[in-house]
Amino acid sequence: MPAFDTPFLMMLLWALVGYGLGSIPFGLVLTRLMGLGNLRDIGSGNIGTTNVLRTGSKLAALLTLLLDGGKGAAAVVLARMLAGEDAAQLAGLAAFLGHCFPVWLGFKGGKGVATFLGLMLALAWPVGVAACLTWLAGAAITRMSSASALLSALAAPVWALLLGVPQIVTLTIALTVIVFWRHSENIARLRAGTEPKIGQK
C-alpha cells in the first residue's frame, strides 16, 4: 500500500469522484441508445460486456468493454495527477464499487471485470497487460467469460508481485475477492457444468 498522506477531505472527494465515474452504466445506456432493448430484460440482466454481447451487437459489447474499463482507468489517472498515489488507489477502488453497486440502479450493477482490468492498466500497466493476457488465455481455453475473469483476477496479485509492484497487491487482493463474490452464481454454474459459453444466449 502507498503512504496515506493526502488530507482526509481530499481522499473523500476522490472516493466520491471515483464512485461517480464507476457508477455510470455504459452497457445499459448504450443498448438503449442503439435500440437494442432494455439490457435488464436480456440474458442475465447484467449491465456488463458479456450480457451486452447477448443482444447480438458486437459493437455495443466492444464499446461497453472500452468504456467500463476506461472509467476505472480515468478515476485512477485523474486522482494520481491531482492528488497522489494513495488517492489514485482509493479512487480506483471506489470506481470498481460504483460499477458493481451503482446507486442509480438500486446498487445492482455489473460484475466489474472490465473495470478491474482498466484499473490494473492504470495502476501499473505491466500488471494490467498481464491480467488482460491471462483473461484472453482463459477465454481461449474455456470459452467462458466467467472462468477467464476469475482466472485473471486470481492471477493479478501474483503478477503484481512478480512484476515488482507490491504497493498495489493489497488493493488487487481486495478487488479479486469482490470479483469472486460477484461471480458466486457463475461459480455455482461452473461447478454444475451449466455455465454458458461466450456469445451464447
Mean pLDDT: 92
Largest sheet: none
Query: DSSP strand (E) fraction?
Result: under 5%
Number of strands: 0
Distance between the termini: 41 Å
How much is the radius of gyration in Å?
16 Å
Low-confidence stretches: none
Give the helix proportion (percent range): 55-70%
Q: What's the helix count? A: 10
Would you list the SSEs in sequence order as H and E?
A: HHHHHHHHHH
Shape: globular
Would you tell me the structural class of the helices and strands? mainly alpha
Question: How would you concisely characterize the structure shown here?
Answer:
The chain has 201 residues and is mostly helical. The chain has ten helices and no strands.
How would you characterize the overall build of this protein?
It contains ten helices and no strands. The model has no long low-confidence stretch (mean pLDDT 92). 69% of the residues lie in helices and 0% in strands. By secondary structure, the chain is mainly α. The protein has helices at residues 8-22, 26-33, 49-53, 58-82, 85-100, 113-123, 125-142, 145-162, 169-182, 184-192.
